[in-house]
Amino acid sequence: MIYQRFVPEGWKQEVNSMTLDEAKKYKEKGEILEGYVNKCDDNGNLFLNLGKEIYGFLPYGEVEAFKVEENGLPKLQMCKNKVNKIVQFKIKDINNNIVILSRKDVEKEVLKWLKIKKENNDILSGIVRSIQPYGAFIEIAGGVVGLIHIEDISVSRIKNPSERFEIGQKVNIVIKSIENNTNKIYLSHKELLGTWDENIKEIKKGQILKGIVKDRAKNNKGIFIEIKPNLVGMAEYSDKYNYGDKVNIFVKKIIPEKKKIKLAIVGGSNNG
Description:
By secondary structure, this protein is mainly β.
């Protein structure tokens, strides 16, 4: 992955097992750790097994700093959904063999870091956590989730984010904006798929390529064909083909100054 200070929960699928003395050192250093959630009680508190006879208690009020909207679920249900999942935390206190944890403190630290990453236009890595018709929710780090609206996934039009992403997929993103009042984070992916000029370098007039049928132009003047996620050309209109059909295309003409490609459909594509 692209090096980054914070990573999504469970990125490495490794958790911290510790002794009580180690837990005290982690607390002093303010280190960010990971562990599996064993259960969630009716009050939304989470419980983790951190090591031999050491138990982690993550209170409801320390589970998240910001409202999570990735599934539109009540916060208690979101907590229950974290059972058997890896979460990140800091140690707030130690009471005998009970270690009091905070995930909220991790999120606050991550948010400060993300605001710096936004200013630098840095490329980050994240994990797709939820897909909705209007976009995909990506965990960037430490449980902090941002939204990629469907129009920011690729230049080529898509009807559903599931055409590009799947749950658990690792993707690269950039931060478009962070709302000051709500801390909502909006992301983009399409800038990372290459510019028109970069994508057209491998395409030559006279080539036969594979493409995917997209939208029809206004008044049925043509059909948009996706050659790459950030490269679309137009073929003559035909009602024979529908959205999503895989076709073979002939490159008739490339017009760099207008960033246009004229295509001809030469048949269906059996290999996709």
